[in-house]
């Protein structure tokens, strides 16, 4: 028994909760501290935490993942509400679709920045999303009314802050174990929510890439990239109130790099196909990193070459095929082109003879050529071209559908077969010819990007202002006629192709699908030669990682279409040649890039 003085009783020590007494706490206020070694370790982990953008493909052991998630789940939360939920993503096709969303958001964001900042932002790595073996999407379940959670009635967003603390815990826990984590918020939150099927009021906080880091940055990446520096502590600490010592210093607003205003675009969804293998992408960037040249010194071309090497697993042949498709367009009868319809047939015949510009460009790039007659003017298919003509009569898009659904399905199927065949040769480049098809392409571009006809219609092969005016009217009529079919294009891209056309775009959409399923990179061309990429991605989202924007052409809506695809063009030459000329020029650049990658001296 404890000795006690008269009139004093022992302190009743609680059996649960805090067992310390007021006396103990008063005698030793710092007695709750961990030892110096723990403090030192914690400070080291906090100081050494980095936002990791590059990952090794090696798997994250499940016990380590659980430890990281446990750290997240131990975070503080408002009213002990634990509003976080962790969605662990390992499915490569979901990851690829998220990466496409991020690619697009990256271009959208760059468009908002000043030129220099945009270039630096585009230089920053986003491939981490494709490389990291695990993605953890931290979402905040906000379905409970704020007033029902202690502390949220007054600060309704405190649930989001709670989730942010969970993320920081995960970050530190990962870092301490040698794992890297990257918090990616370059998404339209609605798009990410629909990708993951989140219910209303469950909001994503971002995508955490998790894996073994393929970089060990001593300082933050954005500081290393000369984006910004950590502010001195004095600049962020104030005494007693905001701005009190104006004379000494005035806190400045966080730096903004915003340039001109810009409009974004909509959502994406569809079926799942084969995804880009993360380990081959890492292997390709490993090779690039080992060259006797600064990292990513070839800019956009370096990234394209890494993609191509990843798809070809380092043994991509230094050649490929230009698939050139010609088709007629009844809309040409409405005076929307400066040229006669028969030119389409002439060009296809010249292509077979090897002298159309696209054919010459393909040959000089070292590519093979496949010429397809998808219904050019004239009774008989062009001799020497593969016939793939629509069977039924077609209408001009302003008053009638351009194609029947059955023909669209046939064109897609034929294209797939051809694309699979072309994939076996290496790169697959797209080419089209069709007098009147920039009107068709403008209507498609309006449907898929939400551009107005005024902003989408361009000069095509050389229209004057009267022709441009007629093109706009036709596109307006077409969009008014098809109404909701335009907005529903993601759910049924083949229906949009039936409504608007054209046969060459439908066939090339099949080519993209077939080439991608054969594992080939696909080089897009101008406006009509890029829309097949958009439509194919809406059918099979993982096609996106196979696409290369060969060029940004002179046609008006092209830039917006590339932004929708999340792609940066290799060339910007104001081309309007069609026929795959731009795709062939870009393909030759890519092939040269591959030779450089494979030939340059390596470092240890
Ligand atoms: O590649 C482009 O973006 C491009 C831009 C303008 C015109 N074209 C070519 O010109 C043709 C369509 O022009 P138009 O004026 O008849 O609609 C078609 O054969 C296309 O290959 C192609
Ligand atoms: C001559 C000519 C060649 C073409 N190739 C693709 N579109 C074309 C349009 C014209 C007019």
TrEMBL record:
Enzyme Commission number(s) of this protein: 2.4.2.21
Family to which this protein belongs: Belongs to the CobT family.
GO MF annotation terms: nicotinate-nucleotide-dimethylbenzimidazole phosphoribosyltransferase activity; oxidoreductase activity
Sequence ranges assigned to domain Nitroreductase in this UniProt record: 46-212
Pfam families reported for this sequence: DBI_PRT (PF02277), Nitroreductase (PF00881)
Organism of derivation: Knoellia subterranea KCTC 19937
One GO BP: cobalamin biosynthetic process
Protein name: Nicotinate-nucleotide--dimethylbenzimidazole phosphoribosyltransferase
Domain of life of the native organism: Bacteria
């Amino acid at each position: 028994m404890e000795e006690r003085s008269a009139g004093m009783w022992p302190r009743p020590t609680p059996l649960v909760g805090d067992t310390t007494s007021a006396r103990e706490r008063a005698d030793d206020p710092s007695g709750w501290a961990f030892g110096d070694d723990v403090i030192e370790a914690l400070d080291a982990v906090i100081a050494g935490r980095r936002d990791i953008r590059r990952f090794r493909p090696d798997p994250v052991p499940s016990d380590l993942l659980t430890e990281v998630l446990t750290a997240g789940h131990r975070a503080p939360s408002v009213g002990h509400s634990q509003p976080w939920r962790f969605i662990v993503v390992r499915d490569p096709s979901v990851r690829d679709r998220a990466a496409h969303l991020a690619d697009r958001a990256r271009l959208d964001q760059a468009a908002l920045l000043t030129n220099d900042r945009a270039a630096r932002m585009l230089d920053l790595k986003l491939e981490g999303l494709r490389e990291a073996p695990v993605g953890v999407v931290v979402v905040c379940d906000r379905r409970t009314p704020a007033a029902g959670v202690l502390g949220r009635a007054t600060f309704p967003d405190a649930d989001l802050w709670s989730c942010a603390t969970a993320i920081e815990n995960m970050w530190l826990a990962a870092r301490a174990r040698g794992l890297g984590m990257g918090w990616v918020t370059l998404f339209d939150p609605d798009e990410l929510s629909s990708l993951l099927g989140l219910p209303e009021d469950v909001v994503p906080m971002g995508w955490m890439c998790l894996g073994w880091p393929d970089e060990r940055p001593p300082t933050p990446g954005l500081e290393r990239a000369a984006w910004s520096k950590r502010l001195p502590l004095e600049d962020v600490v104030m005494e007693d109130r905001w701005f009190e010592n104006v004379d000494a210093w005035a806190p400045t607003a966080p730096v903004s790099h915003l340039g001109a205003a810009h409009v974004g675009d909509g959502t994406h969804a569809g079926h799942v196909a084969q995804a880009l293998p993360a380990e081959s992408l890492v292997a390709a960037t490993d090779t690039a990193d080992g060259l006797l040249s600064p990292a990513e010194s070839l800019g956009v071309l370096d990234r394209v070459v890494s993609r191509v090497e990843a798809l070809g697993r380092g043994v991509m042949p230094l050649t490929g095929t230009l698939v050139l498709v010609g088709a007629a367009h009844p809309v040409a009868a409405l005076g929307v082109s400066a040229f006669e319809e028969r030119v389409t047939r002439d060009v296809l015949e010249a292509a077979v003879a090897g002298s159309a510009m696209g054919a010459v460009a393909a040959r000089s790039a070292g590519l093979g050529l496949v010429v397809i007659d998808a219904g050019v003017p004239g009774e008989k298919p062009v001799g020497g071209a593969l016939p793939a003509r629509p069977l039924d009569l077609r209408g001009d898009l302003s008053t009638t559908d351009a194609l029947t659904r059955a023909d669209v399905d046939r064109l897609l199927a034929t294209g797939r077969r051809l694309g699979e065949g072309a994939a076996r040769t290496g790169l697959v480049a797209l080419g089209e010819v069709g007098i009147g098809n920039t009107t068709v392409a403008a209507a498609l571009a309006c449907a898929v990007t939400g551009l107005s006809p005024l902003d989408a219609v361009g000069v095509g092969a050389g229209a004057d202002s009267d022709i441009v005016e007629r093109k706009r009217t036709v596109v307006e009529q077409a969009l008014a006629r098809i109404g909701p079919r335009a907005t529903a294009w993601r759910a049924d891209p083949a229906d949009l192709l039936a409504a608007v056309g054209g046969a060459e775009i439908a066939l090339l959409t099949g080519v993209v699908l077939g080439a991608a399923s054969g594992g080939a990179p696909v080089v897009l061309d101008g406006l009509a030669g890029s829309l097949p990429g958009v439509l194919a991605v809406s059918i099979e989202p993982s096609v996106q990682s196979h696409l290369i924007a060969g060029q940004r052409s002179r046609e008006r809506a092209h830039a917006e279409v590339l932004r929708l695809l999340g792609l940066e063009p290799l060339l910007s030459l104001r081309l309007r040649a069609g026929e795959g000329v731009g795709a062939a020029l870009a393909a030759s650049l890519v092939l040269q890039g591959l030779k450089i990658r494979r030939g340059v001296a390596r470092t240890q």
